[in-house]
């Protein structure tokens, strides 16, 4: 009896019977379809045989052994572990298993970023003395939203998330007050005509020299954007600290702290609705490999701003646009560990990590006019991710990016420009200074020489009656864009800025508020960062103009137009990211309470 049962339970017998039954059925069909009547009897026999065998199958199938647990049989060759939209990551550890990114209560929602297995191939960037030679490149700033690439390097072991830290606890959930902001936000908001590019005889604006501002009249006056009395209870968000016991600059991006910062410093429901629409646009246009595509989003168009041809800079700006988009997402409290767009942030960071060059550069294949910007934008995103999440791979990538930044700094002037050895310009310095600042908040100490050089360059470009204005390079005429970038940089790195210099800078900036002249998101970005830190009358005036212009020109799909000073080079991802960063200013950086310079931090608080 046991032998009989084993025979009927043999899958090979069942398969053989099934094959013969099907074959007889096919033969039957063929015989009956013939025009000649010969073979009909054979067809009937085959049909009977097929029916009999099918009946036999009904007898045999119940004897087949069932898989454990009653589940369907699994096939080893089926790939049910494909992750992140079937992306192939060349620098993943081949032994690494894909982590489950679903959220679990009281546990981190996502695993650390991938760790590269190319540790032995990493090249330590050399920081050496470089002769002070002027760059061969023209004295005009590069693309505001340049491109950058990313290399395969990283070696740190997986980092276990520290659930006891204040940052992680703050990231674990959004406060109910903040959720109400999105529940109440309007589905649509009025959109007005965008100012057209000025005629050819109108001199274009740029970070170096702006033409006399002319008011831009929108086709419709935006509605009132003020939030009516919104009750906000006392903040329950703790002060968060990163490695080195340094206060977390990013503590206001989530939860009740975000709600309070938003309302107390000038934001409202409509600005948050605009940010939400922008993030939806950005994530919808992310490439499968995690990057944002320059060519697919209109970047690299040569419009010759300032009358100079830069060869369509921006057309290969994958890492620059990826960095800017990630900064926009993280500015709203999204990380690769938690949030509605956690997967988008994760894939974007993975792209940067896997494309980081062995020397730490994140500039990718960007052109000479865009490469330094590209590295700065991508490196800033990685440093913020490292400071907020403490992910081991992000920290390692940020450390190498900071090493590259310092290796590119001119040893004499302390500045950065297009290539190593360039004496520097202020437009480049702003991004690199923020890279060093964000990296320091992740516990990665910049060298004292690099910090001193940065401060030396900032002094060299001061201009105006009391030094409140700034120029692109020392000795040149000051501009509003450079004045904004210098003031924002000085405030955000914790420098003490005398009130007389602040007053002089604010007077210049308020002469060209958003809505006056051609839209310039780059200028607005730095002016917004600076004035938000000051929280005075100038900030209120600027903020009203900023909201009016941005809310009235955002397109229905969430993007901002590219008809701006640098929009041709950066495309819609650049314009949308920069505008979004402006509207996130209310909570993106905490207001500085300590004016201590980076260079004055105790050495014990840093790690190399």
UniProtKB/TrEMBL annotation:
The keyword Transmembrane helix applies. InterPro entries: SQ_cyclase_C, Terpenoid_cyclase/PrenylTrfase. Pfam families: SQHop_cyclase_C (PF13243). Residues 148-157 have a biased composition (Low complexity). It comes from the Bacteria. Coiled coil: none annotated. This is Prenyltransferase/squalene oxidase repeat-containing protein. It comes from Novipirellula rosea.
């Amino acid at each position: 009896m046991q032998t009989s049962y084993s025979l009927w339970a043999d899958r090979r017998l069942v398969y053989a019977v099934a094959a013969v039954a099907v074959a007889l059925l096919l033969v039957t069909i063929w015989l009956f379809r013939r025009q000649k009547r010969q073979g009909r009897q054979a067809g009937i026999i085959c049909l009977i045989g097929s029916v009999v065998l099918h009946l036999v199958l009904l007898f045999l199938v119940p004897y087949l052994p069932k898989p454990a647990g009653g589940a369907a049989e699994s096939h080893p060759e089926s790939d049910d572990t494909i992750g992140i939209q079937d992306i192939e990551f060349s620098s993943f550890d081949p032994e690494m298993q894909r982590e489950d990114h679903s959220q679990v209560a009281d546990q981190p929602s996502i695993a650390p970023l991938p760790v590269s297995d190319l540790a032995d191939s990493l090249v330590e960037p050399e920081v050496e003395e470089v002769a002070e030679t002027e760059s061969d490149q023209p004295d005009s700033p590069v693309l505001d939203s340049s491109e950058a690439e990313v290399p395969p390097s990283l070696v740190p072991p997986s980092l276990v998330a520290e659930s006891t830290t204040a940052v992680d606890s703050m990231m674990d959930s959004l406060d109910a007050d903040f959720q109400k902001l999105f529940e109440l936000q309007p589905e649509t908001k009025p959109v007005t005509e965008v100012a057209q590019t000025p005629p050819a005889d109108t001199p274009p604006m740029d970070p170096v020299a702006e033409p006399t501002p002319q008011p831009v009249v929108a086709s419709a006056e935006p509605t009132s954007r003020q939030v009516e009395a919104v009750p906000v209870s006392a903040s329950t968000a703790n002060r968060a600290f990163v490695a080195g016991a340094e206060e977390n600059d990013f503590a206001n991006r989530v939860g009740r702290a975000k709600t309070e910062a938003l309302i107390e410093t000038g934001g409202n429901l409509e600005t948050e609705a605009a940010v939400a629409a922008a993030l939806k646009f950005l994530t919808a246009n992310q490439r499968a490999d995690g990057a944002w595509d320059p060519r697919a989003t209109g970047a690299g168009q040569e419009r010759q701003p300032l009358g100079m041809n830069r060869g369509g800079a921006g057309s290969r700006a994958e890492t620059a646009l990826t960095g800017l988009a990630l900064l926009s997402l993280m500015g709203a409290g999204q990380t690769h560990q938690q949030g509605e767009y956690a997967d988008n942030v994760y894939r974007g960071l993975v792209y940067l990590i896997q494309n980081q060059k062995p020397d730490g550069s994140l500039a990718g294949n960007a052109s000479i006019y865009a490469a330094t910007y590209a590295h700065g934008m991508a490196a800033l995103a990685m440093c913020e991710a490292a400071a907020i999440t403490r992910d081991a791979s992000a920290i390692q990538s940020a450390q190498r990016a900071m090493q590259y930044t310092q290796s590119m700094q001119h040893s004499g002037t302390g500045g950065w420009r297009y290539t190593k050895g360039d004496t520097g310009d202020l437009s480049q310095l702003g991004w690199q200074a923020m890279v060093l600042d964000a990296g320091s908040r992740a516990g990665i100490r910049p060298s004292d020489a690099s910090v001193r050089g940065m401060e030396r360059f900032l002094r060299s470009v001061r201009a105006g009656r009391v030094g409140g204005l700034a120029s692109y390079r020392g000795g040149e005429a000051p501009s509003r864009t450079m004045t904004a970038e210098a003031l924002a940089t000085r405030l955000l790195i914790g420098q003490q800025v005398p009130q007389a210099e602040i007053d002089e800078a604010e007077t210049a900036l308020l002469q060209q508020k958003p809505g006056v002249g051609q839209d310039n998101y780059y200028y607005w970005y730095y002016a917004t960062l600076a004035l938000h830190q000051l929280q005075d009358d100038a900030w209120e005036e600027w903020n009203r103009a900023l909201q009016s212009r941005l809310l009235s020109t955002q397109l229905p799909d969430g993007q901002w137009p590219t008809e701006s000073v640098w929009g041709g080079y950066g495309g819609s991802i650049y314009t949308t990211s920069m505008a979004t960063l402006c509207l996130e200013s209310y909570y993106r950086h905490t207001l500085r309470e300590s004016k201590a310079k980076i260079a004055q931090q105790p050495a014990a608080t840093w790690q190399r």
